[in-house]
Specification:
- The complex is a heterotrimer of chains A (about 300), B (about 270) and C (about 375).
- With about 300 residues, chain A is mainly α.
- Helix content of chain A is about 80%, strand content about 0%.
- In chain A, helix 2 packs antiparallel against helix 10.
- Chain A is globular, with a radius of gyration of 22 Å.
- Helices cover about 40% and strands about 25% of the residues of chain B.
- In chain B, helix 5 runs parallel beside helix 6.
- In chain C, the strands form two sheets. In chain C, strands 1-2 form a two-stranded antiparallel ribbon. In chain C, strands 3-4 form a two-stranded antiparallel ribbon.
- Chain C is about 75% helix and about 5% strand.
- Chain C has two domains: about 280 residues, ABC transporter involved in vitamin B12 uptake, BtuC; about 80 residues, Winged helix-like DNA-binding domain superfamily/Winged helix DNA-binding domain (Arc Repressor Mutant, subunit A, Orthogonal Bundle), CATH 1.10.10.
- With about 375 residues, chain C is mainly alpha-helical.
- The chains are: A mainly alpha (about 300), B alpha/beta (about 270), C mainly alpha (about 375).
- The interface between A and B is medium-sized, with 26 and 31 residues.
Chain lengths: ~300, ~270, ~375
Amino acid sequence: MLMIELLTDYTFRTVLLGTAMIGAVSGALGCFAYLRRQSLIGDVVSHSSLFGVMLFFLASYWLTGQGSKSLVVLIPGAICAGTAALLLTRTVVQRTRLKQDSSLGVMLAIFFGAGIVLLRWVQRVDPPIPGRRGLEDYLFGMAAAMTQDDLWMIGILGFLAILVMLLLWKELKVYTFDPLFSHSLGYRTAKLDTLLVMILVVGIVIGIQSVGVVLMIALLITPASAARQWTRRLGTMVILASLTGAVCGLVGSVISATYSHVPTGPVIVLASTLIFVVSLMLAPGRGIVSRMLHRSKLMSTIRQPNAGGDLP
Amino acid sequence: MLDNDPALSLKGLTVAYDTEPVLWNVDLEVPAGVLMGVVGPNGAGKSTLLKAVLGILPSLAGAIRVFGQPYSAQRTLIGYVPQRSSVDWDFPTTVLDLVLMGTYGRLGWFRRPGNAERKAARQALERVQMAEFANRQIGELSGGQQQRVFLARAFVQDAPLLLMDEPFAGVDATTEQTLVDLMRELRQKGKTLVIVHHDLTTVCEYFDQVALLNRKVIGAGHVSNVFTTELLEKTYGGSLNQCKVACRQFSTLTSESISRNQDGHADD
Amino acid sequence: MSLVFWTLAIALITAVTCALCGTYLVVKKEALVSEGISHAVLPGIIVGYLVFQDRSSPLLILAAAATGLLMVGLVQLIKRTRLVDGDASLGIVFSAMFSGGVILASQNLRNVHFHAQCIIDGNLATAALKTVQWGDVDLGPQAFWMMALTLALVLTFILTFYKELKLMAFDESLARSMGFRPVLMHLVWLGLVSITTVSAFEAAGSILVVALMIAPPAAAYLLTKNLFPMLNWSVVIAVASSVVGVYAGYHLDISPTGPIALAAGLFFLGVALFAPGQGIYSRWQLRRQQKSSVFEQLLLVQLAGKTDHAAAAETPRSPESLFRQVAWSRRQFEAALGRCLERKWILRQGQQYLITQDGRVHVEKDLY
């Protein structure tokens, strides 16, 4: 298909706008997960959200006789399950001697296991539940299935999460950097933590339909890790990560629409990985190339016999 | 009104991790306007004491009063300088930004720091001789410089009671001198400082008052009264080597520090 | 032999192998590396399949296991630049490799039965159907024997290097100073994890591998502090989860891998809540007991005149003066007073309280 045809195509415009918004929101919020050294919560929350998605799908079936796959129904379920998984992880870490990574892993077993049980049961149960076809797409994502309603849901939730981030910018910043100090400033750190967890969960679950639960972690973490290399300010980092996420979302949708049988999610992930690798290499001052140049310059200075005394 | 109440008063404070009590029935009074050092062996609960005062760790029993009021009503009166190692220095922020965090408490929700705050932060940086580093990334600083930036942040926070956790750990001599000067200046301004300290040899030189802590308070009060061989032995138990060195140091310093203390009181 | 029997047998042997592999990962606080490996082997499996055209060829297993190690190596490489946090680099690398695998599959394997179900929850029942023949004898499913071989490999490694593993798990610096090579051992172990992941992949899929590598060892971690009992407990919990899971899967008529993972997770939750000593409930109880004993002690200290503040030491005290001395709520104070009276640590004389000899002994015993 030609580009111009694509852009006039209604479904494609929806997908394009949706993936760009998802990339922008998760990229921005991912910076906080990254800086709190909790990158892997993205993986656990997205996997766990499957359980909530299935529960709310079933609930919609019991209430209306027709299982709903609209994000308006499923995302609240995903938020509940994702938040529950994280709060349970926090409880286990605080109250037992098990460490964060194992606790997260166990939540993966419980919530994703339960999600898979429900998913397979819904797929097999007789008589069939109307609307069950396509539920499996939540595993690996199906951006093309996005509807106008879904777009609104993603837009509104993403906007709210970003709004909370901007309003509480300085509080979240100081809490992420130095939680003990933020406590001494008089902040209710437990509440702040729960709020941050909530907006992170929102940033994760809005993408599960497009990229699937398995790959959502990349949308959260990869843009943030790339953006970290280019700046020394949190604000710039969040903007760069958000832009990276949006651009990768666009690129993913375009490529997947241009070539047949190329899934959107993996392309988005590979695009952001490419940007990450380039950032790691080329970032000024910090990047690998710049470090090597610096080192070779230093070595040549050392080798010049006269310049020995001028070394910093 | 503030002058009459002690800056910090702990009564029967008991804190436990899991099974073992870390602080047992701690009674401590820190009068307003003093420079108090908290010393004791490793695992004596020094950092725990500060964290319990701040409410970061829950206490099993006991009352904490700050300038005569319960802590929950006085949260913003306490400034805190955590251990340097408790934060990630690769965080993307500049030195000036970090110091500005000290103003966040009085800014309240939603408001961003403005020019007045920036000016205060720059002045604080100048005060710790770090002005030319204002726009550096914090990861580029040395240990001593990091500590000075932390202190500048506390300076900006401008709380009447300041708790500092091991500010002298792993810093260079210049920084140590800067820190001491700044602490004295703060005390001169009427602030109260409680400082967890690990180097016994400098206690007499730096502090007016000292609290010897080993799970409970072994002794607290003026350095000349408390920093005695008997109490130090009681505090440090077996590990007396450092203690003896300190005592020798002490005997040479005693006269000097007593006279300094008396000077201090003449100022009041 | 029935299909159910072989399904259970494959589930059991997979569970045991994963649980053994995972124990070390949980102790080393690297549990989520298994999540990374289980996703990163996908491109290896697909390339292997394209090359060998046989999903259970041993060469494919080795090739795919190598992909797992490649991921570990890449993560280490990125970590070493110190430009990116360790957890983040794990997430970046495994999601990128998995994406590569999915795209490869979508381009090359469209005609083959290789869709999401295989990747996530495998297919135990199909695996149980594919049997190996030796002459005329039916030896049972290929998947079972492959897992058995893997288990033998893992067990041999654990038994041969038990001492070294134990040292490395609990004190890596000591292990290094004694001349072991922790890095090499670690790498070999991750290689075993990769091999286990790949051989379990067809039957169990990635969810079961991750769940079984983390949940049973994590539960065992709360039950004991030594490596050997921990290995035992992991195996016991893994076996119990697979029995429950296969049974539940059979009744719901779905693949048993999801139920096994869920069962393992729920077993963990049960242990975390009720384990003696380390469980949430018993720690909560301990803390409560400790709290009341601290209150009793503090009260007795006031009466015995151990602190400087109890100026009126040794003399009987009225409850009001005691209450003013301690800084507790009225309810806490009265409860502590009641408990001390009940245990005869204090006596009541009219309106006043007095410490008894028992109480004095109690204070001295506990204070120093």
